[in-house]
Amino acid sequence: KKLGIALVGLGSYAKNQLAVGLEQTPNCYLAGIVTGTPAKAEEWMKKYNIPKKNVYNYQTFDQIADNKDIDIVYVVLPNSMHHEYVIRAAKAGKHVMCEKPMANSVKDCQEMIKACKDAGVQLGIGYRMHFEPFTKEIIRMSREKVFGNVKFINSNFGFTIGDPTQWRLKKAMAGGGPLMDVGVYCVQGARYITGKEPLAVTAQFGPITDPTRFKDVEESLSWQFDFPDAVTVNGFTSYKTNIEQLFATYEQGFIHLSPAYSYGPIKGRTSQGELNLPIVHHQANMLEAIAREFQETKMFPAHISGEEGLKDMKYLTAIYEAAQTGKKISLV
Ligand code: NAD
C-alpha cells in the first residue's frame, strides 16, 4: 500500500520541498494537511487533489486518529511546536516524522520518544542527508577507511537571514539561533563521518554585528568537539555568513563537500578527485527511502530515529552551555 502522509504546517519547507518531493515518490503520497489558514487549505486541496475529509486545523487535528488514509503525520512547524504535535500525533496512533531540530530541549525530546513508544508508533527526524548520495559515499569511505583513520573535521553551515521579525530569531520559538537551525547539520556531519559520539566540547559566541536581528538568539557560534581517537571537530554556524562545507582529513587523504547540506546540488571531491554522483531531490529521496523501509520492516530507518534527534539535542545544549560558561563540557 502507498503510504499516506499528512503535513502539519504548510510553511516554506512543507510547500516548496516536501509537497514537491511527495509528487515524485512511488511508495508514499500527500494524503492530508493540517493548517490554521483556510485559504491555504483550499489552495492545497485543489493543487494536490486532497479530499476535504483529510484536511484538519490545529483544533480538529486529533480527529486524524479516525482517518485510515493517513499513515504518517509529518510535523513541519516552528521548532517549539514539534513537541506538542509529535505527541498529539502519537496519541492519535499515527507514525510521526518530525523536522529538525527535534525540539527545543532534551526533556521535550525524551517526552516525544516516550509518547511514540507508549503509542507503539515510529518516530523519525527529517535528517535528509543520510539518504543523499554524496553524503552516503563519504560515510562509506569513512567506514571502509579508504584514506585510513579520520584525523580532523571542519564542519560549517551558515546563511544570511532575512526578515527580522521571523520566528527563527525568537528564542521561545526557535530554541536558539543558527546552531539550532543549521548548526545541527554540522553536529550530524561530525557524527556520521566518525561513526562515533563526541567526548567533550568547548564553544564561543561570535560578536553581534546586527543588534536589530540578534536581540534574542546568537548571531554566530564556533565550537570544538573532542571525539574518540584524538579526532578534533571544528564547527561554525552563523545567520550572517554564507558558508556550507564538510571537510575531513584522514591519514592518507581528504574529503570535501561544499555545498554539503542544502538541497541545491551537493558537490564534492576527495584527494582522489571529483565525486560524480547522482543529484537527487532530497525530500523525495528521503521520503521514498523511509516509505520503502517501513513497508518492508514496519520501522523507520534507525539512523533518523528519535534517539538520534535526542543525542543531537544533548550536544546542541552542551555547545550552548560551553559558550555561556567558557568551560569545557564533558559529554560522557
Ligand atoms: P515557515 O515559517 O516557513 O513555516 C512554519 C509554518 O508553521 C507556517 O505555515 C506557519 O503558518 C505555521 N505556524 C503554525 N503556528 C505558528 C506559530 N504560532 N508561529 C509561527 N508559525 C506557525 O518555516 P519552515 O522554514 O517551513 O520551517 C518549519 C520547520 O521545518 C522548522 O522546524 C525547520 O527547522 C524545518 N526545516 C527543515 C529543513 C530541512 O532541510 N530539513 C529546511 C527548512 C526548514
Automatic annotation (TrEMBL):
Residue ranges of every copy of the Gfo/Idh/MocA-like oxidoreductase N-terminal domain listed in the record: 4-127
Keyword terms, alphabetized: Oxidoreductase
Pfam families: GFO_IDH_MocA, GFO_IDH_MocA_C3
UniProt-listed InterPro entries: Gfo/Idh/MocA-like_OxRdtase_N (IPR000683), Gfo/Idh/MocA_domain (IPR050984), GFO_IDH_MocA-like_dom (IPR055170), Glc-Fru_OxRdtase_bac (IPR008354), NAD(P)-bd_dom_sf (IPR036291)
Organism superkingdom: Bacteria
GO molecular function, one term: nucleotide binding
Domain GFO/IDH/MocA-like oxidoreductase as annotated: residue spans: 139-243
Family classification: Belongs to the Gfo/Idh/MocA family.
Name used for this protein in its record: Gfo/Idh/MocA family oxidoreductase
Species in which this protein is naturally found: Emticicia agri
Lineage: Bacteria, Pseudomonadati, Bacteroidota, Cytophagia, Cytophagales
